[in-house]
Design goal:
mainly beta, OB fold (Dihydrolipoamide Acetyltransferase, E2P), 1 helix, elongated
């Protein structure tokens, strides 16, 4: 038996929950509970409230999903301005 294909939906993060889950409102007005995919955690991709995301869902459970992609926004991220690196040597 072949593995079922994942369904992909676009949505917006409406709430960041404390245990690594997110409340996402899909474009078709459904609210689901989603978590960040492993690659997003590995590469430390931050997902904040208001971000546009792509959610993968199983056809068997349409109330939960996995956030697989976060769209880049045009708004600047606070604290992500140009940072100066400290030199690797001591000055005397």
């Amino acid at each position: 038996m072949a593995k079922e294909e994942m369904l992909e939906f676009d949505g917006t993060v409406t709430e960041v929950l404390p245990d690594g889950n997110f409340r996402v409102k899909l474009d078709n007005d459904h609210m689901i509970l989603a978590y960040a995919a492993g690659k997003m955690r590995k590469h430390r991709i931050r997902t904040l409230e208001g971000d546009r995301v792509i959610v993968e869902m199983s056809p068997y459970d349409l109330d939960r999903g996995r956030i697989s992609f976060r769209h880049k926004s045009d708004a600047p991220v606070p604290g992500a301005g140009p940072q100066r690196r400290r030199p690797n040597f001591r000055r005397r």
